[in-house]
Amino acid sequence: MTSYIDTPTKTLVTPENKTFAYRVIGTPATVPVIGLIHLSGNLDNWDPTVVDGLAKEHQLILPDYQGVGGSGGKAALTIQGMAQEIREFIHALGLKQVDLFGFSMGGFVAQEVINQEPTLIRRALLTGTGPRGGQGIGDVTKISDRSLAKAIFTFKDVKTYLFFTRTTNGKQQAAKFLKRIKARQTGRDRSIGWSAYRTQLKAINKWSTESAIDFSQLDLPVLVANGDHDAMVPTKPNSYNLAKAFKNSELVIYPDAGHAGVFQFNEEFVKKANQFLR
Question: In what order do the strands lie in the sheet with 121-127?
Answer without folding.
Answer: 10-13, 19-25, 60-63, 33-36, 98-103, 121-127, 222-227, 249-254
